[in-house]
Amino acid sequence: MLKKILTIATALTVLNSQADIDIIDGHIMLESVNKQIVNINTEELNKILNEDASVILIDVRTPSELNYTGTIKRGQNVNIVRGWLEFQIGDHAKSKDTPIIVYCGRNLRSPLAAKTLENMGYTNVKNYADGFFIWKEEFSPVRISDYEPNNILYRLPEEIAPGVYSAIGATQPYTYENSNHNNNLSFIVTTDGVLVFNAGGSYLVAKAMHEEIKKVTDQKVKYVVLENSQGHAILGSNYWKEQGAIIVAHAEADKDIKHRGEDIYMRSLRVQKDKLIGSKIVRPDLTFEEKLNLPMGDTKIELMHIGASHSPDDIQLWLPEQKLLISGDTAFNERMLPIFPHTNALAWIETWDKIEALEPEIIIPGHGEPTDLATITKFTKDYLVYMRAEVEKVLDEDGGLYEAYNIGQSMFRDRGTYRELHKQNAERIFKQMEFE
Question: Going edge to edge, which strands form the sheet with 193-197?
């Protein structure tokens, strides 16, 4: 027995010694690799990202790491896991001289990734040696996959103005990770109940939102207003119906839910899977065309359809006493707005005059942080004006879709959904203006 114990002890000593050797060898290898590659710091990285829209910034950490720590919030940033770099780099770098910068958390994996790319023949590779955690410590912009990993809500509600709260959604396309909470869900507490703006993207999201409302007030939710007929606005409606709330929407939203409700549900189900459990399509109880006053106790609330914008059924909520506008998808902040086939970009610009006439002091947009009129104008109207002007130049020179796709939009690259939308927007604005 003693001999067996000594044999095990000897084996463990050998294993521990081997582990120590492996660690030492790893550090020696890293030191050697770092001498063979180009390393840059945070100041140099920012300079390159600001000046070169074509550079590809690659976070080589795993998606689970990104979910809990975040990633660099710059338009050139993509995620390719270190082990998949050889297989996926071609999807992003179209030529061997494409400028590439790699990074990880603490500069352990990224030097090896940089060397791998060089061995594959890529000629313009740099390693961000400070790493993500230094970037984050210096309060540089960070994209968070989920602010509340233990809650189905992407972020919890915060008070924006007295009695007005909003849970700000992810400024990215809806994903399983963000649980279809990629728009802003707001509520207003009055002396005569609560009004919720947007039902949420599922039964579970609506229920989670209600739990947060209960922490603020014991008032009953009286109305739930749908900003439009998109899935993240309507798929929680049946939860609120169960609580006795009245669902309010524009008449066009009601028509769209009636005719396309099942398609909206199935499209979301393909992404949300089990997170859509309990969700059902229900139609609004109350609709309006242009304006609906909903006074609640001491609070004056006006629902409006001020004109064409992102969708024909977009509505807004106006609190005249607080000069606060919940704009729905008529206004965007921090992320790129989408041009749908039914979006009239010119009419959207004309609608902006009515927003400015309200002189709002606070705007809770459809997407992005609450802000002021000047900021929201930059992200919405100014983008539309720019794109129409550039498309007009293409048309004046007898250009086609190819030229429209190549309209310079790199100055907008840091906006959420830029990759997904910028070429689609150019195409759709071009097709609209081609026959004006």
Answer: 158-161, 164-167, 185-190, 193-197, 221-225, 246-250, 286-288
